[in-house]
Write a structure and sequence with these properties.
Blueprint: E1 3-9, H1 15-23, E2 30-37, E3 54-58, H2 63-73, E4 78-81, E5 87-88, H3 92-103, E6 107-115, E7 121-125, H4 132-139, E8 151-153, H5 154-160, H6 171-179, E9 186-196, H7 202-205, H8 207-224
């Protein structure tokens, strides 16, 4: 089953490392889609890999719009998101596909390690496995999911709808809440992503905007999670 790895890119100096980690996956059936969201810097870092990727350039519209553009061009069974400043470990896709097929999962996320600008490991972040109802309640307290650890069936995302482009910062949080209305989100307790912590990262620069959007999402889904469960 093909996996579509989508890399949104906007002026990120680490994009070449992200691409290398994607194209060198041990899993054989992948496509790597780099969506250039109107970048004005570091586009030359993509050039050596053009023959190995699908390259899409669009006007700047934000992460949600870049992910949606990638999804529109994706031909895989599964979706995986890789931020342009992060990296997949070499067997990330292989292990996660195996996990999902073994557990009959349509949606999953994993543990991850944080790294600095020089790829030195700082810490490891793990979650506690939770039952579906418990996980939805945990989502109402904050997002426990690193978006780059997620793998989802593209058919599920089509069913639920693409990323909400009305959210500038917390589009991933809203998506995991929405997908949880349709299916359980299974946790694979193995670190398969290197999440880069650096001064230019969006989580640091836009903390206030993220917090405001997260509050809106929690208010919305506190009601929706109480509604009758949707069919899978």
């Amino acid at each position: 089953m093909k996996v579509s790895i989508i890399i949104p890119f906007y002026n990120c100096p680490y994009v070449d490392q992200a691409i290398r980690s994607a194209i060198h996956q041990t899993y054989p059936d992948i496509e790597v889609i780099v969506v250039d969201d109107g970048s004005t810097k570091f586009t030359e870092k993509i050039d050596p890999y053009r023959h190995r990727i699908k390259y899409i350039r669009k006007s700047n519209g934000g992460t949600a719009s870049a992910l949606n553009e990638g999804l529109r061009h994706a031909t895989g069974h599964y979706f995986a998101w890789l931020s342009s400043d992060d990296q997949f470990v070499a067997d990330k896709v292989q292990k996660q596909v195996t996990f999902m097929q073994r557990n009959g999962s349509r949606l999953s996320y994993t543990a991850f390690k944080t790294v600095d600008s020089n790829n030195t490991i700082i810490s490891e972040i793990r979650s506690a496995p939770m039952r579906h109802g418990t996980f939805k309640q945990r989502l109402l307290q904050g997002c426990p999911v690193n978006g780059c650890t997620v793998m989802a069936e593209i058919s599920l995302m089509k069913q639920a709808g693409w990323f909400d482009e009305g959210y500038k910062f917390a589009q991933d949080y809203e998506m995991w809440c929405r997908l949880s209305l349709f299916t359980p989100m299974h946790y694979f307790d193995e670190s398969l992503v290197l999440y880069r912590v650096h001064p230019g990262m969006g989580t640091a620069r836009f903390a206030s905007g993220i917090a405001n959007e997260a509050q809106q999402i929690q208010q919305t889904y506190s009601k929706l999670f109480q509604s009758p469960r949707r069919k899978k």
